[in-house]
């Protein structure tokens, strides 16, 4: 037949991916401190604008699609009225 699929075994070696000690477990409002410890305003703004640039074209495409649908529907309603 074919090869038998190997089962993947995960081993906990004690390392952590992220320090979760500062995360609150309630539903309180977030504090106005820096999310990333040690990151300055310049790094935070660079990250923010990088994310905004990545979302600019998809946002523009969705807005353009919505405008196109609106104009088509407006034309249809206008033609029915006349």
Secondary structure elements and their pairing?
Elements: H1 41-81
Order of helices and strands: H
Q: Strand portion, in percent? A: under 5%
Distance between the termini: 72 Å
Beta strands, count: 0
- How many helices? The count is 1
Low-confidence stretches: none
Question: Could you please describe the fold and organization of this structure?
Answer:
This protein has about 80 residues and is mainly alpha-helical. The protein contains one helix and no strands. The longest helix has about 40 residues, at about 40-80. The chain is extended and about 75 Å long. It starts with about 40 loop residues before the first helix and ends with a helix.
């Amino acid at each position: 037949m074919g090869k038998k699929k190997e089962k993947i075994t995960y081993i906990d070696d004690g390392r952590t991916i992220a320090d979760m000690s500062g995360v609150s477990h309630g539903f309180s409002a977030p504090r106005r401190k820096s999310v990333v410890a040690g990151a300055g305003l310049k790094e935070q703004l660079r990250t923010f604008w990088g994310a905004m640039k990545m979302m600019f074209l998809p946002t523009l495409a969705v807005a353009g699609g919505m405008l196109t649908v609106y104009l088509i529907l407006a034309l249809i309603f206008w033609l029915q009225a006349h």
